[in-house]
Amino acid sequence: MTPHNQAKKGEIAKTVLMPGDPLRAKFIAETYLENPKCFNTVRNMLGYTGTFEGREISVMGSGMGMPSIGIYSYELYHFYDVEAIIRIGSAGGIADHVKLRDVVIGMGACTDSNYAAQYRLPGTFAPTADFGLLEKAVSLARAQGVPFHVGNLISSDLFYGDYADSLTDWKKMGVLAVEMEAAALYMNAARCGKKALAMATVSDLPLTGEATTPEERQTTFTQMMEIALRLA
Known about the structure:
The protein has 232 residues and is α/β, with parallel strands linked by helices. The protein is 31% helix and 28% strand. The model has no long low-confidence stretch (mean pLDDT 96).
């Protein structure tokens, strides 16, 4: 056990789906998994293991922001022998061609965070997804007819930032959407030689003001969930 996870060794599958919201983890477990068993309730960061189409899969919340997913993904990789983590979250679309409920698959994750400073690298690290997971996710999205985009995310430490034009500046660099976790997940995976992929359903368009409701974000982003379940 860890300070944040009460699971015992063997109770968590080799692949973990990680939505930010623990209630989304509960929804996925109860909707899609056969015989789901809850392995964690610490801080209400719910985690479940069950089977989907005969394969063992776990799903666990990550919380909001890079410090939070940094803790949970680190523990899963290092202490529970997890091999792959697939983030299934929400994001704000900023590219003109990205629409509400589209799925964005993060090939890379730019960031305004100082998370990489811990590695004391002699330069700037570029956090990227595992190509095998990314390639398979693209194939599954095409097969399911899901509207999707592949490219850069911006993982921001700020939800309420003081610089109003920051998203416009990232948009100029071809970034597709903004979220708050992918870069830390990709860095943790890289550092310990594991796999990671971040997918996000577009929940809002911050540059235009369009948005889905909290209830929709919790229970209706099913296309992304189904891609991730078949990817695991």
